[in-house]
Amino acid sequence: MLTFSPDTYRLLQHENIEQNRQLFQQLQDQFAAEFEAVFPDKLAAKTIVVIPSLTVDQEILTKVKGHFYYEERLLCLLMLLRMPRTHVVFVTSVPVDPVIVDYYLHLLPGITGFHARERLTLLSCFDASAKSLTEKILERPRLIERIKKCIPQNSPAHITCFNTTELERVLAVKLGLPVYACNPDLNFLGTKSGCRKIFKACNGPAPDGFEDVQNRRNIVQRLVDLKRKHPLLKKAVIKMNDGFSGDGNAVFFYDDAVKNKQLEQWINSNLEQQLKVIATELSASTFISKYETMGGIVEEFIEGEIKASPSVQCRINPLGQIDILSTHDQLLGGEDRQVFLGATFPANEEYAKELAVIAFPIAEELKKYGVLGRFGIDFISVKENDCWKHFVVEINLRKGGTTHPYIMLQFLTEGDYDAASGKFYMNDGKQRYYIATDNLQSDSYKGITPYDLMDIAICNGLHYNGASEEGVTFHLIGALSEYGKTGVVCIGNTPDRAKAYFNKVVEVLDKECKQKK
């Protein structure tokens, strides 16, 4: 269960939830006809209202450094302005620096900055609190009215957001707009327990484990069950049903666990001591307490000398059509590689096509429930005897860390990912690759303002070149000065070229910061 502020709980108490559910479904039902009539036409008038709210459990979210600036990741959707009759209304917690907005508009292919600005409306709550953006908007009825007034008359419009909860549903009804995302009534499918049930329904190759684990006693029993079933198992993963970027996970180490009758007693006595929580500043006891409010899963930790963490990004559009949008190899860090740091695109050519084959029936199963919009499927892959074995471990019914890099590549090059070949092709048949991260971080980067970063990038050639269709784009720019953290997408015509761009970014930033000391 998500934790909202007391003010928001009071706000929701005044809403007729069942009536909202019915009105929301009516809006969603109308969306299919609108989508079919308007969206294939790049010259058709349309409006996209971007609400980049990370409406996830706030206690977990606050453990993610710079989470407040993650709203900026969806600034990639400003690239929609390349369609000359498209309007974008972008709402944020605090104003986005004009330097950052200018940076994105400068990247638009074939559109002048003036033409794009005429069709862009930026609105802000002027609220830097820890509440989610959607909560802040709902607390400001006048802002909701302003959003409505910013939509051109008779313009087909919809909302796009990071994820959907009851709050996004209430906001959609108040705005009278459909949402290009999953109905929050289906969010259980994206919980860790829901994922495992979906995998079982379509015979997805998931790690051995248990869903619907509710409390500490259940955790202990399931850890015992796993160890008895797999005596050589060294570690298990304990995941809350609703986590973010790996920060709802913990790893249990069996280390000195004894066998048979004493096993349960040993695990019960040593659970907190043997638990390594991924979220920094979250103790084992707090993790268990939080776990008991939302439940979760316990599953085996997949070992392997050669191991990868790929993902597949999918989309189900309002007409029910399934697209395999991309494959990535995730770059993970933290305790036993549980925290998402970045990704390379596309996934390893040795298995990219295999991932799409496994992902498609999972998408078909989700379609049966009425899932809509983008979602990601995460894997753990192990290479044994020159063959890759894949385990499906998670479904994210929302946009994720691989969404904005792929959108940038697709909009900048007007190319597409071909699931049959596992490659990305532009119109001229040339291929593109990238390495992307949200976590390019160093304390020495603190104090670099958006203006400073633009100056550094221009003087050192760290930009995207529209002629060669290669180069660097930055995101999470606002987080740099406070947290020493930013994001990049480094695009090249080969994986080595993409890596070279990334290395150059790190080299330049390190050098610039060293010189300023």
Detailed description of the structure:
By secondary structure, the protein is an alpha+beta fold. It folds into three domains: 6-181, no CATH class; 208-300, no CATH class; 307-516, 2-Layer Sandwich (D-amino Acid Aminotransferase, Chain A, domain 1). The protein has helices at 6-13, 17-38, 58-61, 98-106, 113-117, 133-138, 141-149, 166-175, 192-201, 216-229, 261-270, 284-294, 352-369, 403-413, 450-459, 480-483, 495-516; strands spanning 46-51, 86-92, 120-124, 157-161, 209-213, 235-240, 249-253, 275-277, 296-300, 307-308, 310-316, 322-333, 339-345, 373-384, 387-396, 416-418, 423-425, 433-441, 464-465, 470-475, 485-492. Helix 10 (216-229) crosses helix 11 (261-270). The protein is globular.
In DSSP terms (H or I, runs of 4 or more residues), the helix count works out at 17
As a percent range, the share of strand residues is: 15-25%
**SS-derived structural category:** alpha+beta
Tally the structural domains: 3
| CATH fold group of the largest domain | D-amino Acid Aminotransferase, Chain A, domain 1
User: What's the CATH class of the largest domain, please?
Assistant: Alpha Beta
User: Would you identify the regions where 5 or more consecutive residues have pLDDT less than 50?
Assistant: none
CATH architecture of the largest domain: 2-Layer Sandwich
Q: What features would you highlight for this structure?
A:
3 domains; 517 residues; 35% helix; 17 helices; globular; D-amino Acid Aminotransferase, Chain A, domain 1; alpha+beta; 10-stranded antiparallel sheet; single chain
